[in-house]
Structures are given as C-alpha cells and as structure tokens.
Write a structure and sequence with these properties.
By secondary structure, the chain is mostly beta strands. It contains two helices and twelve strands, in the order ααββββββββββββ. It is flat and about 80 Å long.
Length: 226
Amino acid sequence: MRLLALLLCAAALWAEAPLSPTERLVETALAFAKQEGEKFGGEHRFKLAQAPRLPQVGAGALTFEASHLSKREPMGRFFVVVALLVKGQRVGMVRVDLDGTWAGNLLRAKGDLVRKAVLTEDLVEADSFEGVPPEGALTELPMGQRLMRAVPSGRILTRGDLESIPLIQSGDRVRLTATYEYLNISLDTIARSRGALGDRVRLEAPGSHRTLTAVITGPGAARMQN
C-alpha cells in the first residue's frame, strides 16, 4: 500500500509539472494554426513536423506570441512564426514546422465544364474530402465569377479556375455618376476598357478625347470616387 501511495504521489507531481519552454512554444504554434484554420471552414488537424530549436535568450520570464503563417491556408507542410518575449520585450523569432490536413466538402465538376460557364448547383457536386486539398479549392459556389478555362468531369474546382464576370466591355455605353458635396451629376460615357464589379474602368465622354477613371457599380454603371 505504501508503495502504491508513493507511485500515485509521484504521478500527481509529474502531471502538475509545468511545461518546458519548447512545449509551450509548440502549444502556441498549434493554437495559432487552429485559429487561422477556422477561417476556412471544415475540420483541420495539425501535428508537429519537426522539433523547433529555441535560441539562447536573456534571463527573465520567457513568453511566446504567434505572428503569422508561412502560407495562406494551413494545410500540408507549413510553419508558424513565433515571437520570443522576455519581460514583455521581443528578443527574437523562431519557426515551428507543422503538418496540416483538412476534412470537409469540396466542389467537383459533375461533367465536362466549358470555358466561361457560370457555376450552378446543376454543374457541381459536393464531395467529402480528407487530406491536403488543392490550393484554393472551392467549398461553396462563387458569386460574380465564371470559369476562365474548361474543366474536365470529376476535377476539384479551385479559385485558380475562376475569373470575374465582366459587367462592362470596351465600347459599351456607361452611365457615370459623381457626387460633389450636395450635387449629384450623371453623364453618359463610352467605356475604353473592360471590367467586373468593383474594378476601375476608363471612360470617355462623347465629343471629348479625355478619359476618366471610375469604379464599376453594376452593368453599364460606374461612379467617380472623390
């Protein structure tokens, strides 16, 4: 009984032992990767890919502050950049290498899709996926975009397959509006470039060779920015 009590006491003390600096560093990196992964939906899983090396720092309480990821989406091999702080002052940076996987639904082409097709529920299907998806893989239908290239049946769709749908083409008539204090001005113009919603477009007033730049607000409509 005495031996059992000693073993239980040792186990309790071991469980309450504080984490080492390296363990706290890894926990900081994993928590930050999880936080960033939540922005993309689905379920992310991370594991340490390589043990980090802590540089020598001055005396004092050492804390960690995650800075950024090495890539936009924390999947596959990547690293977290973590700042080292002693008494609240930054004294260095260190990287923590991680491996990330993702589980969720991705959009695949139901059949062969032609260039300039606008994606709808009839053209795509949600497919369960687990692993490292292609960069920019789509999880939902994009708005205001179309395919910039043909896509074969069964392929996972990505942001790289898309382009914005032009609302104005060169030569189109465009209604230009501008506001100066309490005065609203509207003018019919001709587009000298093309663009999608939110793009800047070059416009020319009839009878004038001067061009203006405005922001596209809709089909055949643009607004001057002050």
